[in-house]
Design goal:
With about 450 residues, the protein is α+β, with helices and mostly antiparallel strands. The chain has helices spanning about 20-35, 50-60, 65-85, 135-150, 200-205, 250-255, 260-295, 305-325, 330-335, 340-365, 375-385, 390-400, 400-420, and strands spanning about 1-10, 15-20, 90-100, 105-110, 115, 125, 150-155, 165-175, 175-190, 210-215, 230-245, 300, 420-425. The longest helix is centred in the middle third of the chain and has 34 residues, at about 260-295.
């Protein structure tokens, strides 16, 4: 194998012209012959026993060329990429230019990692708000803790808005059950609006053990098979419950934390909220800075990088939907789009992500950033503290050292930008002007 030329094209594309010589090609042709001879019928020869020259004389000398090229081309391409020290992106477009008994020549056009010229990435300016925790924030967090420690109490009375009705239900369209219209022992919070309009209102007033039919007309914007259709739900109320929250006192603090008094719990909640807001503020500050740094780079970004990132985003969306019990096909139906439409929608954010990744990589190179073994171990410890249910050893089973090392290096690159930046006070939102009074005539 020899590289005849390596031509740089626009958009960080490279055209490699590669020649495979007679000796290499002959070995591949012989290999192709040995694979195929058992499937070739030749008069006077048992299957698999016909000499290669006899087969080539009957079918032509090129009979084994295609398989021989397919056998040797991938390795020849990889060797050419390595010889030219190219950082390729995606798969090449391959064109076979010449093939014969003396060998073959092909051209591979492929995207390569672009050259990146950094703009300003130190001394950037971005708004950063002061983290403030109010009494209302503390009360809201305590309320969440109370919700998690609430209990359900059965009620011997008709259901009211705000109650939780445990129900069995089944829907019928023109007297026949329809898909997705049945549920058993479903806890429905009345007034939540989680069911089709008109359903919850008709459950209000029902008592435990009561059954009745509920008439519903689906909205016109509901999914196609039921949009605008009149249906009947048969509903049975199994129980009517109310959520009972614990009293907010010292006993509550002892039940939900390691503290003895409510005041101690409040102080701890306030401190944790402040830390959360400070961290969120720092992340927002860094995001603005890194976006500015990414806007300042100069790079001829190949389409293949953006396309690959867009496809990755669609795969991530597919996995997220699956975790929520929805398929990507259902999502596309709901959003009136198709797979190509999803990829097209992802291209703008994909380009932003590619620019961000290129920026971080260029900063790492410019600053000579590395991660020591101690840095990596400290990151495992930090993640273990964040995910309190996992030990460092367990984390190491799920997250390989190379992945964590890369994460540490990226964080260090972002810190270079953030530590040198200038934080300014966010602009106050503009006050709406009072409407001018009409002049009297």
């Amino acid at each position: 194998m020899s590289v005849k030329s390596c031509e740089t094209l626009e958009k960080s594309m490279v055209a490699l012209t590669v020649e495979v010589g007679t000796e290499e090609f002959e070995a591949a042709v012989e290999k192709a012959y040995r694979k195929q001879r058992g499937r070739i019928n030749m008069p006077g020869f048992r299957p698999g026993k016909a000499p290669r020259k006899m087969i080539e004389r009957m079918y032509g000398p090129s009979i084994f060329y295609e398989d021989a090229v397919n056998e040797i081309l991938p390795d020849a391409y990889e060797a050419a990429v390595k010889e030219q020290d190219l950082r390729v992106v995606g798969y090449p477009q391959v064109e076979l230019e010449k093939v014969g008994k003396e060998g073959f020549t092909f051209k591979a056009t492929v995207a390569v990692y672009p050259e990146v010229t950094l703009g300003q990435y130190k001394g950037l300016e971005a708004p950063r708000a002061e983290a403030v925790v109010t009494d209302a924030d503390v009360d809201a967090r305590l309320g969440e803790m109370a919700e998690r420690n609430s209990r359900m109490v059965d009620q011997d009375r008709p259901a009211q808005n705000g109650d939780i009705a445990n129900i069995d239900f089944e829907g019928f369209l023109e007297g026949k059950p329809f898909d997705g219209g049945k549920g058993d022992n479903y806890d429905l919070t009345l007034g939540s609006g989680s069911f089709v309009p008109g359903f919850e209102e008709q459950v209000v007033g029902m008592s435990a053990g009561e059954e009745k039919d509920i008439d519903i007309t689906f909205p016109e914007n509901y999914h196609a098979d039921l949009a605008g259709k009149a249906v009947v739900f048969h509903v049975k109320v199994n129980a009517v419950k109310v959520k009972e929250l614990p009293e907010m006192d010292d006993e509550f603090a002892k039940d939900v934390s390691e503290f003895d008094t409510l005041e101690e719990l409040k102080a701890d909640v306030r401190a944790k909220l402040l830390a959360e807001k400070q961290e969120a503020g720092q992340r927002a500050f860094e995001d603005i800075l890194m976006s500015k740094a990414a806007e300042g780079i100069t790079a001829d970004i190949p389409d293949a990088m953006v396309d690959a990132q867009a496809e990755e985003m669609v795969r991530n969306l597919t996995n997220q939907l699956r975790a929520q019990g929805m398929s990507i096909e259902q999502y596309m139906q709901m959003t009136n789009t198709d797979e190509e439409g999803l990829k097209e929608q992802a291209k703008a954010p994909a380009l932003e992500q590619v620019r961000m990744d290129l920026t971080i990589a260029a900063i790492i190179k410019a600053e000579g950033i590395e991660a020591t073994d101690e840095d990596v171990e400290a990151e495992y410890v930090r993640m273990s503290e964040m995910y309190s249910g996992l030990s460092v050893d367990q984390l190491k089973q799920y997250m390989k050292e190379d992945m964590v090392r890369e994460q540490v290096i990226r964080s260090k690159a972002i810190a270079v930008v953030a530590d040198s930046a200038i934080a300014v006070k966010p602009e106050e939102p503009a006050a709406e002007a009072a409407p001018a009074e009409e002049s009297a005539e």
